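User: Sequence recovery, please. Input:
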């Protein structure tokens, strides 16, 4: 499938936004005033929602295209291969982190989200063992495992959608989301903690599957050409209504309605449980972006962001290493004056180019070597997802 640069650029934007927020939460905490403008800038929506939805959207288009062509077995193979790649990447990150703790434990600046009560700082080998079976998901290590599980269910979701069961698929996703609101994940985690120090992460998998599954369904219908007209070309009247609703939530995000008792802060905007207002706000903003992307394509074709988005897995993995690695130097970063600190911060963000460039070079070398018969061909991964 030919890449869609606007989607790649949006994924790149989510990665940059995510990296900025996570760096400000931890090693650059001394300039976290920027968080007021970078984190959930447009309402009760973070980069994570966009990351999962766009991942589902692209997977729906790529794997849905295979199913439309009758390549059912190929679709399953590719999906599971991509899931394995994500799982192994997460384990590699865990191994690097465990070795770093064993060597530099006394150097880490602990505090904030990366705190001394994390299992990996007290029992690093136990943390690694539980991490391998995805039962210990500390800060930033919960995102890829969710993606892994979502890819495992991707073939089922797409095949059922292709059979005309879109309504049932989305209804099932809603039911599972409701179960999440009722405490399903907490119940499972509590049961596991009777036997081991389990940590299922910040994001509730049963809630967040809703975004990914919705993305899969929309991606499939986009590839098949069966999306409803109002999603393909948003009518002006509906767009105006959506814009007003998004503006009201945006105003509430910055406390403008708190005086009237209309604030949504609390459970409705919960990021852990993907609260109902958070879903609504994401849908509203997403709809507006579709309209803007159709009218002002050049706004969504920033090459650097698209380049990052095309290598999203490796850019994300690199950002995790950045956030933990720079904790070793947090005291020095804090002691820097503002101007050098901001310059260093900008250079760190720009360094996201490094993993994307390396992955591109390795992939190019692999393809050229395979074409020349220097290495044995293996089934390619679906880089678009």
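Assistant: Recovered sequence (385 residues):
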């Amino acid at each position: 499938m030919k890449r869609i640069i606007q989607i790649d650029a949006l994924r790149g934007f989510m990665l940059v936004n995510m990296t900025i927020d996570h760096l400000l939460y931890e090693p650059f905490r001394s300039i976290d005033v920027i968080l007021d403008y970078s984190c959930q800038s447009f309402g009760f929506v973070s980069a994570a929602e966009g990351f999962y939805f766009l991942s589902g959207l692209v997977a729906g288009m790529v794997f849905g295209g295979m199913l439309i062509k009758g390549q059912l077995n190929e679709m399953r193979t590719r999906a599971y291969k991509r899931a394995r790649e994500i799982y192994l990447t997460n384990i590699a990150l865990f191994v690097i982190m465990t070795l770093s703790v064993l060597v530099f434990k006394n150097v880490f600046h602990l505090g904030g989200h990366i705190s001394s009560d994390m299992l990996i700082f007290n029992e690093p080998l136990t943390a690694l063992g539980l991490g391998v079976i995805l039962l210990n998901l500390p800060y930033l290590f919960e995102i890829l495992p969710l993606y892994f599980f979502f890819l495992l269910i991707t073939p089922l979701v797409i095949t059922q959608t292709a059979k005309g069961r879109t309504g049932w698929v989305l209804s099932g996703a809603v039911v599972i989301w409701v179960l999440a609101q009722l405490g399903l994940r907490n119940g499972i985690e509590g049961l596991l903690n009777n036997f081991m120090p389990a940590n299922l992460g910040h994001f509730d998998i049963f809630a967040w599957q809703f975004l990914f599954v919705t993305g899969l369904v929309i991606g499939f219908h986009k590839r098949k050409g069966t999306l409803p007209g109002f999603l393909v070309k948003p009518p002006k009247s509906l767009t105006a209504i959506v814009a007003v609703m998004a503006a009201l939530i945006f105003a509430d995000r910055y406390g403008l309605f708190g005086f009237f008792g209309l604030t949504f802060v609390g459970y409705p905007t919960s990021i852990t449980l993907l609260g109902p207002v958070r879903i609504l706000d994401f849908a509203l903003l997403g709809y507006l972006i579709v309209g803007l992307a159709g009218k002002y394509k050049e706004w969504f074709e920033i090459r650097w962001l698209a380049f990052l988005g095309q290598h999203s897995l490796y850019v994300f993995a690199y950002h995790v290493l950045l956030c933990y690695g720079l904790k070793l130097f947090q005291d020095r970063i804090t002691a820097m004056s503002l101007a050098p600190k901001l310059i260093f911060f900008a250079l760190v963000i720009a360094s996201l180019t490094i993993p994307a460039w390396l992955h591109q070079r390795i992939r190019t070398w692999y393809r050229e070597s395979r074409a020349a018969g220097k290495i044995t061909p293996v089934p390619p991964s679906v880089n678009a997802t």
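Residues 83 and 148 are 5 Å apart (CA to CA).
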